[in-house]
Amino acid sequence: MEHGPHTTEEVNGSFYQPSAFFMMGIPGLEAFHHWISIPFCALYLIALLGNCMILFIIKKTQSLHEPMYYFLSMLAVTDLGLVFCTLPTTLGIFWFNMRRIGFDACLTQMYFIHILSFIESSVLLAMAFDCFIAISHPLRHPSILTKTTVMKIGLAIIVRAMVSLLPIPFLLKRLTYCGKTELSHSFCFHPDIMNLACADTKVNVFYGMIVLLSTVGMDFIFIVLSYILIIKTVVSLATKDECLKALNTCVSHICAVLVFFIPMIGLSMIHRFGKNVPPLANTLVAYTYLIIPPALNPIIYSIKSSHIREALLRALWKKSESGWSSTSSARKH
What are the E-state strand segments in the chain? Predict the structure, then answer.
């Protein structure tokens, strides 16, 4: 195992902090990292192009300037943030075996990964609330979720994530670390860093659990409650066609919720209780949690949302028409 040079500070001869950590790719498959990087590059490319496409279409299409699509824009920006947080270190390991990351750089990456995860959770809750209002109170929907209200919700989501997670890096910096400097992933994750400390981590565990339950945990509970109320409203509708039409508006959101929360809960359970879980399983769940949702979300919304799909087809049609007209004019000249 590689070990980083020790000691940036020493207090009373007992406080040690490594100058760097060493990240890990996929355990046991190091010889195949170059080949494994191909599907990862594909996923990152899909995530980048897909989310940029969603943002471009929503910006250019006036009919999509509605609360649902504003929240979808927030989701796309958050997914792009997650991609930019994990892409450099993940592909750095797969392509160049660049495993070393500075202590402070690791804490910075960890902070932004967790912030963006919390923001994504809250945006999914806001989208569930929007779906509930649209189905339960369709006439009042525009007056309840105005553009100003959506902006305030977005700002509150960002502030909540930043403030609740702000103590985490400082709680990690106060810990004494031992000889182990090898992380379990190709990115920095709070429980992973905490497990390398040889000091008492009860404060970190307690605060981390409280923050997780009061933010992501509460978001998930309210999303479930929103869908219970949505189902209750849908069941009371007169015809089967109306029921299906109402539920169809929420299918893409349900898929996004499942894609995000299932691996997140799985990873949290592994870090808290899965001491005997194979390292490979831990790594795969972590990649599923951070890389799959940004790649799948634009695909889900492009397939299931007829408005997004139609706007995309219109944009492609205009582009092809302009290409044909420029080609024909060039031929005339």
Answer: 20-22, 100-102
